[in-house]
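Example 300.
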Amino acid sequence: MKTRIKKVKTKKSFFLRRLLLISIIISTSVLTYTLLTRQNQQEAFGKGDSSNQVPANTLSSTVFNETHHSQALVPESKISFHAPSNFAGTVVHDVKLNTTEKYVALTFDDGPWHNSTEQVLKILRQNHIKATFFMIGQNVKAYPQQAKNVLAEGHAIGNHTWHHWYMHMNPQLAASEIESTADIIYQTTGAKTTLFRPPGGILNNGLVEYAKNQNHSTILWSADSEDYRIPSVSTLIKRATKVAPGGIVLMHDGGGNRSHTVTALPQIISKLRQQGYKFVTVPELLEMQNKEQPPITVKN
Ligand SMILES: [Zn+2]
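Predicted structure in complex with zinc ion:
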């Protein structure tokens, strides 16, 4: 009998010890999780405020300007390409600068692309020039390494829609074309951009309306190389260099055979240099005007 009571007591004590141990493990895990979550929120908001009542747009802009490690899918580099706030929701062809110095922005559309994006990057690298690349979403998906290389070499990135469609789009389709491209650019390169260029420069098919509502800056151009028509190299050079200070030059690194663009590019650069031009990215160009005077833009 005595032995039996002892056995029951031992069993009970064993059970209680296990219960205590499990409770300790659970409380420790809950405490650790709470602390980690709080820390991540503080890093994301950058203010030590773990409140969840932050407007969605504030949250996203804060998150990509901060360096934190809670989003495993996002690459390490976190860069954002913005026009100054007074360009938000506007359409820009060029800027007017109150300076005797001559600046121009080279832009490349429809990439990334096999071969030609790398060839363009190489020429820009050799000439110590930073340019702006308006990327097509499906091409970023097809050529992710080329997209990463563009960013890694210090160039600016803009959104050029997913499919490069010209047709009229309802707000949902326009949103999908622009947002899916923004997503793949971010997932691939870690960059966010509010620079938008509508395919074909079309302003009235629903895309620019959506971009304006999102406060993106629609970036057109003041000199068109028309390289998509594959003109002779000399014609291409002539068109691309017919630009005024503060101008934006349109070329293409993707979307087809760009061998003429690649051949012409070193000569375009040297010709513009002979005319006294310095090369900047589109956001840099807009920032220059922003510091000097209110923007001269076309509002549609
Ligand atoms: Zn295009």
